[in-house]
Amino acid sequence: MSEDKLSIRILGSGTSTGVPQIGCQCEVCQSNDQRDKRLRQSALVTYQDKNILIDCGPDFRQQMLACGSPHLDALLITHIHYDHVAGLEELRGFSELPIYARGDVITALHQRLSYCFAENPYPGVPHFKYWFTCRTASVSTHRSLKSCRQM
After folding, report:
1. How many Cβ atoms from other residues are within 10 Å of residue 9's Cβ?
2. 99: helix, coil or strand?
3. Those residues with Cβ within 8 angstroms of residue 103's Cβ, 6 or more apart along the chain or in another chain
4. Among 55, 101, 134, 81, which residue's Cα sits nearest to residue 9?
5. Which residue from 50, 58, 112 is spatially nearest to 75, judged by alpha carbons?
6. How far is CA 59 from CA 23, 102, 106, 142, in A?
7. What's this model's pTM, rounded to 2 decimal places?
8. For 39-98, what is each residue's pLDDT tens digit?
9. How many other C-beta atoms are found inside a 10 Å radius of the C-beta of residue 124?
10. Is 28 within the bounds of a domain?
11. CA atoms of 89 and 94, how far apart (whole Å)
12. Is 21 inside a domain boundary?
């Protein structure tokens, strides 16, 4: 990839439960259309050989394996919902990874994953050292995807 080319790879565009939703009988969840088989929200932004992961949900491992397990240079967490942070424990190989999030998200993660911030963490547990607080930005979408009708 060219050094000055920006690339955004959507790793997941499903709902908080993914699509199809387990147990749902709606048209979308029963569809054979591959566009209706989506992992939870995440993206990989690449610029000048740097990879920035946006959100790290429960499908993170599967998403990274599917895109060739590229190196990661930073993580941006958009908000504290489970479907955006449940994969953080899978980052154990990236313990020096800078993580960017709003202050309230960082505080909530310290509470939920306190063992990842311990001075002497248990072996094998991801240990997060570098946190940066971000200000919020407003983003609008122009196109929506079909989602499960139970939601």
Report:
1. 14
2. strand
3. 133
4. 55
5. 50
6. 18, 22, 21, 25
7. 0.81
8. 999 999 999 999 999 999 999 999 999 999 889 999 999 999 999 999 998 988 886 788
9. 7
10. yes
11. 10
12. yes
Check residue 148 and give its pLDDT.
42
State both tokens at 14: 């499903």
Beta strands in the chain (DSSP E): 7-12, 42-47, 50-54, 74-76, 99-101, 131-133
Tokens of 119: 């001075």
The tokens of 57 are what? 């949900």
Secondary structure of residue 134 in the 3-state scheme: coil
We report the CATH number of the domain holding residue 53 as: 3.60.15.10
Query: For residue 25, what are the domain limits?
Result: 7-133
Q: Which residues pair with 52 in a beta bridge?
A: 45, 74
Provide the domain count of the chain: 1
Closest by CA to 144, choosing from 7, 15, 10, 11, is: 15
